[in-house]
Design a protein that fits this description.
- The chain is mostly helical.
- It has eleven helices and no strands.
- The radius of gyration is 21 Å and the shape is elongated.
């Protein structure tokens, strides 16, 4: 990274190597994206492509969630539209949540458990610069995996759009999800895991903290099927803002707690 010093870049490279050597991180960085971005969309598409075009009462209830632009779609097209916009965002957002949590747990809590964090504190780098390098390294690692996952997901869904004669699936909602909500989630999961480590949490317990953001986001999209609301661009922007505000507080708290006196002499729970 050009905006980091050579010493900070060395910390980032070390964390990349340690993260990739972890089986948990490798699974979350390869198997999970492949399953959620390619396998699941293909399974859903095969099911939708082979269903009948019969209009049922349950289907009419679901179509009430569709915007006017989708009113002229056929039965299969409407079901695919609902799947892409109401279910697939959950699958996609699991990638940044789980990858960021796994990588940061490995590079923060894992390093503390391995006893190698003390070695870093003995280097000329100040604790704040070590935190900065590790924090940016975790985010960049998760961001790369997420971007590749979204690219694979876009190709898979676009093939479905072509076969069903539908317009390209990316709209304002997906743009907000990828360019605003996803970065906010990456920051949140990394900062939350780092803060958990600073409070003495171990690697596994630090990873569990990801449930604090995964659960409300899953509910946000699933509640759309009740017909109470539709998570449009405004709702997604509000959710992104809420996560961003939490990011600011968590990053400050984690950075302040990242000091040798608090970390090296605190028992890992």
């Amino acid at each position: 990274m050009k905006f980091l010093t050579p010493s900070e870049n060395a910390v980032v490279k070390k964390d990349y190597n340690e993260a990739w050597s972890s089986m948990t991180v490798r699974v979350f960085s390869t198997v999970l994206p492949a399953f959620t971005a390619v396998v699941l969309p293909i399974i859903f598409f095969i099911i939708i492509y082979n269903i009948s075009d019969t209009d049922t009462a349950a289907f009419r209830q679901i179509t009430k969630l569709l915007p006017e632009s989708a009113a002229a779609f056929g039965v299969k097209q409407k079901i695919f539209y609902c799947t892409v916009n109401f279910i697939f965002p959950i699958f996609f957002l699991l990638v940044p949540i789980m990858v960021a949590s796994a990588v940061s747990a490995c590079c923060f809590a894992g390093e503390n458990e391995r006893g190698t964090l003390e070695t870093l504190f003995l280097t000329p780098l100040k604790p704040k610069r070590i935190f900065k390098a590790k924090f940016l390294g975790c985010i960049s690692f998760a961001a790369i995996v997420t971007a590749l996952s979204f690219a694979a997901f876009s190709i898979t869904v676009s093939i479905g759009d072509i076969l069903l004669s539908m317009p390209f699936f990316i709209d304002w909602n997906w743009l907000i999800i990828f360019f605003i909500l996803t970065p906010a989630i990456l920051l949140f999961c990394t900062a939350l895991t780092a803060a958990a480590m600073c409070r003495g949490k171990g690697c596994f317990k630090s990873m569990q903290m990801s449930g604090y953001i995964a659960t409300p986001l899953i509910l946000l999209f699933l509640l759309q099927f009740t017909g109470l609301f539709v998570a449009g661009a405004r709702t997604l922007l509000i959710a992104s803002l809420a996560v961003a505000l939490a990011d600011a507080a968590l990053v400050v708290a984690a950075e302040k707690s990242f000091v040798p006196q608090k970390l090296l002499f605190k028992p890992v729970k």
